[in-house]
Predict the structure.
Amino acid sequence: MEPVAQLIRTEKENLNATEVVLSRDAYMRLTLVYRDSIWNNVTLMRPFPLSAPGRCIIFKDATGLPIGGLPDLNDLPAESRAIASEELELLYFTTQIDGIDDVKARHGVITWKFRTNRGAKTVYVKDRNDIRSLAGGRVIFMDTNGMRFEIKDKHNLDERSQTLLEAET
């Protein structure tokens, strides 16, 4: 059995994506309608947020108990998929790194100066274990405050940025 399907099976049940209807209430909380049931204040979870962000989405009720899961976010109808994607983006907020201007290691902390999709950022990383290289050239940085910063493909960075990245990872 595929690991994603196994995880969903242990969480509750596989939901039929075509029967999932997501909406937002007046307070912008997520509501799930599935078959004859309605759940308010639903939360979503990505068990594999870095390696498979669109796969194996778990739906939980207001108390945190699992309702069920979907093997693939793309199987949802367009409107529900847009709402789920928006919700997951808020939960798993990541700033995109466009370039690296400087990096310095000092007193056990690595200071990175990034150009991002949100402007120039100075990021403090505790140690190299908080920098994860993933398939396809992706690199994820976790700063000392738990914020995530992502390089979608390190091969697309300018030469100086690639050199700085290689020197510190």
User: Anything to note?
Assistant: The CA atoms of residues 74 and 81 lie 7 Å apart. The longest strand covers residues 94-106. Residues 94-168 form one domain.
